UniProtKB/TrEMBL annotation:
This is Aconitate hydratase. Pathway: Organic acid metabolism; propanoate degradation; Carbohydrate metabolism; tricarboxylic acid cycle; isocitrate from oxaloacetate: step 2/2. Residues 715-840 form the Aconitase A/isopropylmalate dehydratase small subunit swivel domain. It comes from the Bacteria. The lineage of its organism: Bacteria, Pseudomonadati, Pseudomonadota, Alphaproteobacteria, Hyphomicrobiales. It catalyses: citrate = D-threo-isocitrate; (2S,3R)-3-hydroxybutane-1,2,3-tricarboxylate = 2-methyl-cis-aconitate + H2O. Keywords: 4Fe-4S, Iron, Iron-sulfur, Lyase, Metal-binding, RNA-binding, Tricarboxylic acid cycle.
Amino acid sequence: MTQSLDSFKCKTTLNAGGKTYTYFSIPEAEKNGLEGVSKLPFSLKVVLENLLRFEDGRTVTKEDIVACAEWLKTRKSTHEISYRPARVLMQDFTGVPAVVDLAAMRDAAVKLGGDPKKVNPQVPVDLVIDHSVMVDYFGTGDAFKKNVELEYERNGERYEFLRWGQSAFDNFRAVPPGTGICHQVNLEYLAQTVWTKQENGEEIAYPDTLVGTDSHTTMVNGLAVLGWGVGGIEAEAAMLGQPISMLIPEVIGFKLTGKLNEGITATDLVLTVVQMLRAKGVVGKFVEFYGPGLDNLSLEDAATIANMAPEYGATCGFFPVDTDTLKYLEATGRDKDRVALVEAYSKAQGMFRDGGEEPAFTDTLELDISTVVPSLAGPKRPQDRVTLSDAAPEFAKALKEIKGTGGPASVPETAQESRFVDEGATGVLDKAHQRYAVEGKDHGLADGDVVIAAITSCTNTSNPSVLIGAGLVARKALEKGLKVKPWVKTSLAPGSQVVTDYLEKADVQKDLDALGFNLTGYGCTTCIGNSGPLDPAISKTINDNDLVACSVLSGNRNFEGRVNPDVRANYLASPPLVVAYALAGSMHINVAEDSLGEDRNGNPVYLKDLWPTTEEITALIRSSITEEMFRERYSDVFKGDEHWQAIKVEGGMTYGWPAGSTYVQNPPYFEDMTMEPKPLEDIENAAVMGLFLDSITTDHISPAGAIKENSPAGQYLAEHQVARKDFNSYGSRRGNHEVMMRGTFANIRIKNQMVPGVEGGVTMKDGEKKWIYDACMEYQEAGRPLVVFAGKEYGTGSSRDWAAKGTKLLGVRAVIAESFERIHRSNLVGMGVVPLTFKDGESWQSHNITGTESVTIKGIADIQPRQMMDVEVTYADGSTKTIECLCRVDTLDELEYIKAGGILHYVLRNLVTG
């Protein structure tokens, strides 16, 4: 760290746990000229401390620090600052390409005459391998063992590469597969709330902050650790010592009052919060929670809410340090001296919530949490909350929309009479209600049947109340003699090994096992599309009859085509409700009121008969979770199992790229790179590659999920002698740009309006329908640039860097949309792609753009932040129109990235010349 100029004379010391720490005191800075900063939101105090500590007169100036105090007058985002997180967190899907890029930068440094050793993380980096396990095996006692073995078999090349990275790079640690989800490992072990560093003979204390290559990095905000998701591109720059350029954000205060009623879960609460904040509009803003309701939530509840900040659109959802923070740190085995430091530091800084604060917010909203009711969200978006009692009729409405004109929906008129009527092995069963046979099975399938019920994802598997609750629902269901419907694929993928410990100690794991919710892996499975295949006969019946099958998962994402290619309606729900829907087997059943089945005496069993009381759950939590569990599980967390230890580490300072690998390849970003960047040029005569509507997600853009055999990526793998069974997922192949380019814009549910009525990654070129990849390669060969037009909230969802990398490699120079989600806009800039927005009320539709036009964008050659640019459109009939658009290169740092050709090029040139 550069010695701070300390303009406000706030560098001082404090004592905690018998030790002395140096820190930069906000109260002292307030006394010495930063008037009123004690009224800042807690999250902005963390930002202010960062500026005080890194004031160097160049990247951080006195004016930047004063701007934090000035923020109190307008409470708007107007001033650009440089922010430096303490550390970086990665998961393996996004981490592998980040390490690939670092390895490629080392090669490029050598070619440019620089020292490859300089390409090295400058801040601590933790990579947790959690996104590669798939639910191939389920419902058996050996499902976990078999899935792990298959994971290593599929991902051997990637894991060898990560083992090399662990040995080749300083400041880089890898948490091996089978340990847990990165966000829960972060919450339970990596995060410290207050970070420390030895420098110039001093022990400096400062807030624990981070950025992560997964958008749900925000979960750790529940532990008062300021963090959010960024693209791999931006994370790599942070790793390499570059500050993150950002505007001092607006902060929306969310006041919580009251207490959750009996039987209401944290999941119900977070789905309500997501819906409210989406309606409020908080994209690009901080959300900070305050009010007396916080006293009635556990830290795990707070983490559940913080986790889903990407779903409500905010940069983060922050909870300040309070007594629960200290208790959680102790309960999860953190060092006693660290806990003492967190308390002393946060109180000294005015960062400790005591309940009486009313910080100065940009705007506020309020929720009495006693009004929260049982809820789900779906069938396509996390913000589309439906109450449990309305879920069945709301699904019936959604079903008509999903089916469109494709024929009658197979909707049982009376669920109790017709949902399980079967008359043989083939043909239509119960014809009046369109229930179809499944070959070789003694059951049929209908629209609305739940074929996946998954207790999965970091959102809920970090929260003992809902997991113990799910176990108790399973126990009571077994006591009544209920069974999961035979067409339901069940799975349990906890966020850490500690979950297994307490479920077993609570004696409910055996109950979950008996219903088919056996351990399938420690990782992010169903929520990211790693749900594994359905039974082939079930899959065939769904596809042959155009059925709308459903999933119910305790995750945070339910976008189209994400969970499973055979499933068209996905609902987010609490783990206990996941179990309930597995018993019901259909979204047509009103789980709140209808019978879930019959007991051994033929009596109907209702959800209220199975739902545990808060007292029951609390008693089991207290008797089952111990500090020793956390200490034992995390005592040697980087060692890994016998599979990880058996991987041989080869290579030295630079990586020996295996020529035949279909998993890891040297990307082409630095080909023909010179020390001086080429001057920017306007975009001339660009073709339109795609026209997209609102809410196109990074799942639509970025390769994700299974690789289809007939897709360009599938054809590439087949050409490289990869068997269909070994295709693996796009996520596992993120280290190979050849696969990822072919999968960009190739989601099975994406709808390019240039080809109306068609789903999938296709476009029109010269009047002919083509794969987007094939068309883009033809345009590249002809030397013609490309543009994309889109609607509102373009790039929502996970911080997928390949959504930007793939866009760049396909030859897209600019994306023109009505609005962008924060992370994707930043990633486009990081790859040298220019984002532009229409004026309010304008769209590609309002300008009658059909995709047959040519587009010229003026002003790129002398681009400035947030300038207006002329987009000249030439229509097929020869007429022209000039559309004025806002260039969303927002800051001077982003301008430097665009001029350099991308953020990696900018960083590499600085390292080589530094």
